[in-house]
Fold this protein.
Amino acid sequence: RTCRKPFPGTALRRGAGVSQALKAAAFASGGGTNLQALIDHQSPTTPWTLSLLVCNHDGAGALQRAEAAGVTAAVIPTKDREPADLGRETLELLEQHDIEVIFLSGYLRKIPTEVLERFPRRILNVHPALLPAFGGKGMYGMNVHRAVIDSGARISGPTVHYVDEEYDEGTIVAQWPVPLKPSDTPEELAARVLRAEHRLYPLAADHVCSALAEGRDPGPLTCKGEVYRLSDAGL
């Protein structure tokens, strides 16, 4: 699948050796802790810059995080909306801000088809389990961690993946194994996995955006065992 209409600047960054940061939008529905991790990670040398936050309701705590960081924020309501209408409004906003890559940060709505088609392999999501297990519709928040514990799994952890038409089925970019403890409650496991999410997601964003800026395929992010050492040391 190819873009029907390239965004401004996209062609210049592909294979042209341009070092400018890609303009990124974050989508969030809740408190935005992964948004905060991206904000805290961002620096003058990161290959992306967070230019926009999109929320689907005006009660999202992520809006306050964006305001504190000086990031432009917009609310696009999704309740009782026609998918095509929602897709058009979202694309218009993204085009207005010249957005080139999207980071889902706790966004609990399906991305409209029109947006998926305009951003092939340019939308990232972080899921709080090791996909392909424990993914799909309804697998979010504490539901995921309860399912992991009930299954008897010995390892969980976050997965960063590209977003496509199906929930949690896009190509995996990176994973961070987090061992379960025999005494884990869903809340304890959730807190430990979230700490790993906050470290992995910005690294994956850097990895993907660096490759896009250089006109090459990102491929998977590998850390040569570092994830296991860090997981055991405080996660």
In short: Confidence is low (pLDDT under 50) at residues 1-18, 228-233.
